[in-house]
Design goal:
451 residues; Rossmann fold
Length: 451
């Protein structure tokens, strides 16, 4: 029985999969925060290059991957898929557990799959600098890497609680040449306003987005890059699932359930969307998005129009949201603290085509440590949600006495997140379930959009 299922370099996908043509209906338009009408291309060209905008709205099912991007992908792609034999034995389950391991990228996560093409398209458009936000630091380090490869400057607004919780992520970004500010910062109007209101603010992804968008919009040589949520980011990540489908063919197997953690949605979309294309063609497969109970966007949010950022600078989209001024607790799964959800993932969830589950962080760390003891890899705190859900699915198969094939996305390693594990092992990590009444309070401030 194989442990590593490997593909050669010539099997790196040549095209990304765009799920938009296969959605159950058309996406609602993106709305301008200034006019409250559908956003115009001119407004978005202030922060995005033309090629990215074309991908964002494309209705083509397949988009060619530029050869310079594929050449850089060769540094780590195709990523390995593993059969978790030792974990299966420890659980005593009849289930087969596979995981796609994205921690082999230079930045240690799946995020370079989109950072590389975004930097490439901006370089082609003559842009000199990119600005962005980051939560746990996985996206920030990935964009710093990508900018270094294409000779671009990079400015990163890192959510303040993560800036101090994860100092070595900051060091990675700086090593690759990026400038990193803790958000809220004194570099932007949005940051200064937040600091005036609360000098001790932990920050949020929504606020860091506001700072990065403001930076890009006020500098003609600078564009904005986003690491999740948007359609083109989900599409770039589809290389994960496309490779996994080919790897399953090598072992003559196919998953009954595909699992990934879910913050803004790119991680989940990357592995699940290609399998959802199979599902639309008649395959029986469940796709499960797993989020923290402290930031329960899908499981407690509402499906409505909302701003993508706290300062209301970015476009308004229809998505599952906890409210743009939602301020999450300082959980260690920093990449899962966004108030909203990808419009693509949101529509699929609203249509009942995918499932969602929220988990407490101590249960996730417990699962991550069990995984590490048997499989050897220390998962990122974000990825631990997928690990925990996969273990739960395997235990359910044991309880039911049924065979089941489980695939989850191990979207990154946790070697830069050992403070979180230290806190868990010393009993300092608490569970927190975001109260429904606080969600309801935040949702009172949604924009009124009438189409």
């Amino acid at each position: 029985m194989e442990t590593k299922i490997l593909l050669p370099e010539d099997k790196i996908p040549t095209r990304w999969y765009n799920i938009i043509p296969d959605l159950p209906g058309p996406l609602d338009p993106v709305i301008s925060p200034r006019t409250f009408q559908p956003v115009t291309p001119e407004e978005l060209l202030a922060i995005f290059p033309p090629a990215i905008l074309e991908q964002e709205v494309s209705t083509q099912r397949w988009i060619d991957i530029p050869e310079p991007v594929r050449e850089i992908y060769k540094l780590w792609r195709p990523s390995p898929m593993f059969r978790a034999h030792r974990l299966e034995q420890a659980l005593g389950t009849p289930a087969k557990i596979y995981y796609k391991y994205e921690g082999v990228s230079p930045a240690g996560s799946h995020k370079p799959n989109s950072a590389i093409p975004q930097a490439y398209y901006n370089k082609q458009a003559g842009i000199k600098r990119l600005s962005t936000e980051t939560g746990a630091g996985q996206w920030g380090s990935s964009l710093a890497l990508a900018c270094s490869m294409f000779g671009l400057e990079c400015t990163i607004y890192m959510v303040k609680v993560s800036y101090f919780q994860k100092p070595y992520r900051k060091s990675m970004m700086q090593l690759w040449g990026a400038t990193v500010h803790p958000s809220p910062s004194d570099q932007t109007n949005a940051g200064r306003a937040a600091l005036a209101e609360n000098p001790d603010s932990n920050g949020s992804l929504g606020l860091a987005i506001s700072e990065a968008v403001e930076d890009a919009a006020t500098h003609s040589d600078t564009n904005y890059a986003l690491g999740s949520v948007l359609n083109h980011v989900c599409m770039h990540q589809s290389v994960i699932g496309l490779e996994a489908i080919e790897q399953f063919k090598l072992v003559n197997d196919y998953p009954d359930v595909v699992i990934a953690c879910c913050g803004g949605g790119s991680n989940f979309a990357g592995i699940a969307f290609p399998f959802l294309a199979d599902k639309a063609a008649g395959k029986q497969v469940r796709c499960l998005a797993v989020e923290p109970a402290s930031c329960p966007t899908l499981t407690k949010g509402v499906y409505d129009f909302d701003y993508g950022d706290t300062a209301k600078l970015g476009p308004i989209a229809k998505m599952y949201t906890l409210g743009h001024d939602f301020m999450p607790p300082g959980i260690h799964a920093g990449g899962l603290r966004y108030h909203g959800e990808s419009p693509l993932v949101s529509q699929l969830y609203a249509a009942g085509l995918i499932e969602a589950r929220s988990l407490m962080q101590t249960a996730c760390f417990e699962g991550a440590i069990m995984f590490a003891k048997h499989e050897g890899i220390v998962p990122a705190p974000e990825s631990s949600h997928a690990v925990r859900a996969a273990i739960d699915e395997a235990l359910l198969a044991k309880e039911e006495g049924k065979e089941r094939t489980i695939l989850f996305n191990l979207s990154g390693h946790g070697f830069m997140d050992m403070t979180a594990y230290d806190n868990y092992l010393s009993g300092k990590l608490d569970d927190y379930e975001y109260p429904l009444e606080m969600v309801q309070e935040s949702l009172k401030h949604l924009p009124k959009v009438e189409l």
